[in-house]
Amino acid sequence: xxxxxxxHADRGSSMRSKVVAQLLSDxxxxxxxxxxxxSNDNPFSESQFKxxxxxxxxxxxxxxxxxxxxxxxxxFRWYNQEHHHSGIALLTPxxxxxxxxxxxxxxxxxxxxxxxxxDPERFRNKVPQPPxxxxxxxxxxxxxxxxxxxxxxxxxxxx
Length: 159
Known about the structure:
With 159 residues, the protein is mainly alpha-helical. The chain has six helices and four strands. The protein folds into two domains: 1-41, no CATH class; 43-152, no CATH class.
């Protein structure tokens, strides 16, 4: 449905071109840009890019397009299946998208509770809690009633 999708991009020439603007318009995609000279205006993209560049196996150069594609396939498999993200309660994207978050967080609570019971002083006599999963995080909050604030998911609805 038009107006439902938004792409947030840097101010690179390709993303500012009339051809791309027309394509996005034809597809009903709203386009927003980072502010000029603000390198951290899209924190989600910047975070992902830093994770990519700081992997120990990130090459100085790719030998060619196929090398870049092979690297990207492995990187995104690792990023989605194995990498625990601080922004999603130290879960993997796969755990969240596959509906396993509640079970994983539940197991973490059990382990933390057992550790606390074994040695409460280790935790300054306060039961440790796993990170909470946020329900919504926005770059550009939708208009009409949405606050755009990050909200934590309730125990009844983690994904």
